[in-house]
Amino acid sequence: MILTDIPYNKDFLPELGDLTEFAARVLVDGGLFVTAVGKAFLPDYFAEFGKRLEWGWESSTTWQGDSPPHYPRNCVSRFTPWLIYSKGKWVRRGFWRDRYECPAKEKDLHPWQKSQPDVEHWLRCFSEPGDLVCDPCAGSFTTAEACFLQQRRFIGCDCVEENVIRGQQRIANL
User: Nearest-CA neighbor of 174 among 151, 141, 149?
Assistant: First the structure.
């Protein structure tokens, strides 16, 4: 499984093809590509991910409290979409809910940090203990910590050296 939270800005859009090609190359048949995405570029994500992967479903994480407004629409949104694609045919799994209400947001290690309960929720929905989970946009390495706590194997990276160093320190403290 690939479980990640890609950058939501327009600058990342040219990277979608490489990310999708990577997912199609490394996932086993039936393996899942699960990513949080920004709402502003949903049509771009659907178009690119659908070139090499099979559409699975859309989910969301919601939370209470304030959020920054999305300009130019002046919308204060309290949900993050998660897109689920598979390599080949979707492999049947147990039941899961396509909406998760996260108890709290965490942003102490990275501006795009996902909360531990949020990541653990999606891990439990789409993987089993012992599975290998990859996060190619690891940021604060929340997925790495969640994998450790949920008995999954982890491999990940980030293009920002500072994030990798902080992630190594975070994992070393487990």
Answer: 149
Q: Which domain holds residue 76?
A: 2-172
- The tally of CA atoms less than 13 A away on the side-chain side of residue 173 is 9
- Which pLDDT tens digit goes with each residue over 18-41? 999 999 999 999 999 999 999 999
pLDDT at 66 over 80: no
For the record, the structure tokens of 75 come out as 């919308």
What's the predicted TM-score (pTM) here? 0.93
CA neighbours closer than 13 Å in the CB half-sphere of residue 45? 25
Instruction: Give the domain CATH number at 36.
Output: 3.40.50.150
Residues shown for the chain: 174
Q: What is the pLDDT of residues 123-140, one digit of tens each?
A: 999 999 999 999 999 988
Instruction: Answer yes or no: are the C-beta atoms of 86 and 30 closer than 8 Å.
Output: yes
* Tally of domains within the chain: 1
Cα 166 from chain centre: 19
Going by C-alpha positions, the residue among 22, 15, 18, 26 that lies closest to residue 132 is 26
Tell me which residue of 152, 122, 151, 95 sits closest to 5, measured CA to CA. Answer: 122
